[in-house]
Amino acid sequence: MPVEQRPPDVPAGWDLPPAPGGRETPGGDRPWPTAEAYELVVNGETREVTGGWVGESLLFVLRERLGLPGAKNACEQGECGSCSVLLDGVVVCACCVLGADAAGAEVTTVEGLTSSGAAADVQAALVGAGGVQCGFCTPGFVVAITDLLARSPDATELEVREALSGNLCRCTGYGRILEAVSEVQAERRMAGGPG
Ligand code: FES
Ligand code: FES
User: What are the structural domains of the chain?
Assistant: First the structure.
């Protein structure tokens, strides 16, 4: 029996089937709905998304349509955090958000954090502490750690563990990642001087 993959609530304004260029549904003759072009604000830049399907995830749109491969696709079901991005300042799994639903929001990917320098010390500490092995989880950790320390610079180890609990790493055993966070906290305290 064909699986209905179309989202139940299609936003108003979408050009619903039949749409030119639509793909065939598995086992059906109705084309996929094709989205009108929409705009995403990503890393401070307005980017146009064209030719997409309304059911594409934000992760797919970022990686495959906008050329931003920093967010990784590991589980594609909200379990691993490798696809973490900020959506209006909140960490989300980009695989669980529809790209079209992010229109009008501010999306920040790891590329935006690293080009601004906001995550430079986090990256360096992860590398220095041996918190990067295969590296597949690393961009998600960089996003989550950068966000946590911006909100809570003096987060306790328990708070760090809790904040990173949605990010899975299958190489490092987490100890080195926690060590890296603690190094960044110490360095930032020193740079901030006494007080
Ligand atoms: S790829 Fe999104 S949570 Fe794993
Ligand atoms: S370094 Fe390989 S999964 Fe984390």
Answer: 9-108 (3.10.20.30), 114-192 (1.10.150.120)
Distance 169 CA to ligand 2 centre (A): 5
pTM of the model: 0.83
| Distance of CA 141 from the midpoint of ligand 2 (Å) | 10
- In DSSP notation, the chain reads -----S-SSPPTT-BPSS-TTPPBPTT-SSBPPBPPPEEEEETTEEEEE-S-BTT-BHHHIIIIIS----S--SSSSSSS-TTEEEETTEEEEGGGSBTGGGTTSEEE-HHHHHHTTTTHHHHHHHHHHT--SS-SSHHHHHHHHHHHHHH-TT--HHHHHHHTTT---SSS-SHHHHHHHHHHHHHHHHHH---
Which of 61, 83, 85, 137 most suits a substitution to test ligand 1, by most atoms within 8 Å of the C-beta?
A: 83
**pLDDT tens for each residue of 66-120:** 999 999 999 999 999 999 999 999 999 999 999 999 998 999 999 999 888 889 9
The predicted structure's pLDDT at residue 60: 96
